[in-house]
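W.,

You were right to be curious about this one. When I first looked at the sequence I had no strong expectations either way, so I just let the prediction run and decided to look at it fresh. Below is the sequence, 522 residues in total, followed by the output.
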Amino acid sequence: MIKAMKILIVDDSKANALLLLKYLQVEGYSDVSYVLSALEALDVLNKSLDLILMDVMMPEMDGIEAVQQVRKSYNPQQLPIVMVTAADQVGYLKSAFDAGANDYVSKPVNRVEFLARVKNTLDLKRQYDRRVHYERILENTLEEQRVQITAMETTSSGIIIADHVCHVEWMNHAAEELLGYTLEELLSTNLMEHFAEQDRLRVYQQLAQNTNPNAIQEQATQPMIEELVNYYNRNQQQRIAKVSCTSLLVTVHKQKLQKLVLVVHDVTEQESQRIQLENELELAKQIQKNLLPAPMDQKDIQINGYIEVSNRLSGDFYYWHQISESQYGVIIIDVMGHGVSSSLVGMTIRSLLPGIISRIKSPTEVMLELNRHMISLYQSKAYIFACMDYYFTAIYVLIDTEKDMVRYVNSGHPVGILVENCKKFIKLDTGSPPIGLLSQLPMKEAQLSFPKGSRLVLYSDGLLALLPQNYKWQIGILTALIQKSCGKPYGELLDSILRNPENIKENASRDDDITLVVIDRK
């Protein structure tokens, strides 16, 4: 049986929470509970917790904000937080890590990876608890300090004890291995000499701000510095270390002395992998961007699109295709989640669109065909449960400029807005549930007039999130902005929505992809 560690699952989806709960209980974790909102999690927050598994996308308070609230009371070592999210790429996760998250697990959850990350995080938590315990039992004599040092020798973390100006007094074997020097070689030397020049001043400044003897506790509760620092080992190889520094007072022969305790971990390989992944994701982003269609400007129609990606890869995209001299197919899609997984699903669907739209003339049949592909994508029994959360919302419109008509299906997407000659406003809300949720999808199609001088606006929910108030008011605000820009170029509508601070709510979140498609009849 695994030693009891208290774990809290935070997820607004009860099904997801129960799945993680089952994985943990089967593995032997006996003290596991769950709540269905970040606000509930903050209510039950206490020192006995050892790990929080936090979903990102939740109503009322999202996971990023919840992490920020937790970090006001507990540092990442005291209470580790693992994000469980579909936003599994570096650009988005930066916000989570900046807020104080320790690690992440991608949705759909891979059981083996999930349990491995939980075990690793809890192992680090146990090491931290032991280290804190050792620090808290520092006694008032040199003999008792030697007992403390003996305990620190057994840890795999590099530990260095220095005076208040960073002259080395002691370090364990792990620190010797990391730096490539023995204690005797570094004794009384300045540890900062081994830091890269660009990092020395930054660390010195933080030390100066945090080493006021009157403010230092005899039993330090949390590190005053946690930094990534470039350093040089004995072979003058530049490496990267995560340095955590605690300042505390110890009493030696009735005299209080200030000491710095530095815990050092080499993270060179991890940082190298992170940079490589970031570069690869940037390349993928450019490939994805190149797949978007160029603006279309024909004698009878003009189509423009805009996309602002919250992360390096997007789950949103749009596509249009001229089917005949007077017929045009336009679709906007928002795949569930964010990051790598949702973008891969989106690119798979994107590859199907040219053939489907050019071959099938009915919006209903286009959406049903996409649903069949989405369902078949994860039919393998090995993946059916792991991937069951994947779906996408979409609006597909078939425009016929000869007949001045538009036929459409809205599958769970925010309503499109059609402005007929700057006077009549019509919402495109007829359709079906999102694509990929059901194998037999009920589908409704609608037909509207689309005469010359009309404008049709399609968008994603990320755009609505920029506007004040709730969904109903946001639709009204967007309609008013469309009306105000009626008869004006596409660029003015884009500027009024996205770049005019008067129209954007204060502290508006851009955590979701923002997509806008504007179709003008000429």
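Here's what jumped out at me. DSSP finds 15 helices and 22 strands in the chain. And, maybe more interesting for your project: The two ends are 72 Å apart (CA to CA).

Coffee later to discuss?

I.
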